[in-house]
Amino acid sequence: MNKSGINYRRNPHRVPAGAALKFGATPDAALVFDSAAGVLAVQTTDGSGDLTGRLSFETATDTPGLVFNEPGADMDVRFEGGADPNLLFIDGSADRIGIGTAAPGAKLHVRAGDSGGASPASGSAAAFESDTDAFLDLLAPAANSAAIRFGDPDNSEAGAIVYEHASDALAITVAGAADRVRITNGPVLFVGDSANTGMSAGITISQAGHDNEIIALKSDDVAHGMTALAESDTYGAASKVSGSSGGLNIVGYAEAGDTRAVQINGRATDDNLNKATNALGYITLVAQKKSGSSVGNAGTNANLAVIANNSTTRFIFDAEGSAHADVEWTTYDAEDDFAALRDFEALMLPDQFGEALRYRQTDFERLGIAHGFGVNPNGRMHAMINWTRLTMLHHGALIQLAEKQNQIEQHLSALATTTTSPSPQCRLDRSGET
To answer: How far apart are CA 2 and CA 16, in angstroms?
Structure first.
């Protein structure tokens, strides 16, 4: 048999180099071996009826290669499994690969079930879909780590999410620096750090050598405008008091309409009624001084707490329990301090001291001694008392008392002088007769 210049009867097991086996009358397909290129190609007709390569085997190298659709035609390939008709689907027109789907939505789309209409976002290189919970497993030995790495032209490992099986810790690498964020099994969340022997569970943040905010709390509802100190939507922040020596600086920001920049609430179940030096309260402030590697009592006359108006200290509470106030002293020279004190007590306890005779509620408000008068359920008055002003009133009353006492003493002295030195015209004899 001789066909197309090939003598098959001469050697029925070998086809000469450059020959083609063609099938069909058109022909519709062919098997071609290019001996120069070392390629065995399977050809079928394209839309124009011409034979074109569909599948080729490269035999010229030590490692033979397989090429499918070398001309880049718009054609799909589907591998069917025992139960999945799209076990592997190659979408030639979209240049995508689907596993479990004939309509891949990303370069690689693995579909274990229909998610209900969800589709991969634009730009996704891979998508994993399921009709129930979807998981991506990275499996490694117990002594090793599993990671998702992120790279760019400048750094092939610019970032990573790493799970360390040996220590049971999850770490995030940023800009090539390890442990920017680390979560251990404590659980402890580390930011900028990786260990804290003083913490079993919690959050540890290290800001390295930076001196600005270490924590900032923000809200879109806030716009305080103090942008020289913090961003306008920041309502709370924490930082160091001193860049070199530390200390905790807590700052609150409030915009117009509210004066509460910082509010501390103490909420407990039981009351503490103790009034001794070991008493506790709903809000307890404790001052302690370094002693070796621990702490102890503050030194003699040390300031335990200070209240300042911006940079000016106004109140000091010291280690001996004394309170100090930087106040503007005033006197009530135009008032009768004694009468004011008497009437103030009568105003607050009318059932015990009767009614105020001269000074009324409005007078004490005018003098700045008390405001916000009200009545308790027991019928007694209460008010917001300015103890500094009340102390000044007491001081003025003592001065007035001293002045009156001095006047009395002078009057008695003058009277005594008069009675002990009678005039010669008026002397008493031994009988008492003049």
So the answer is: 13
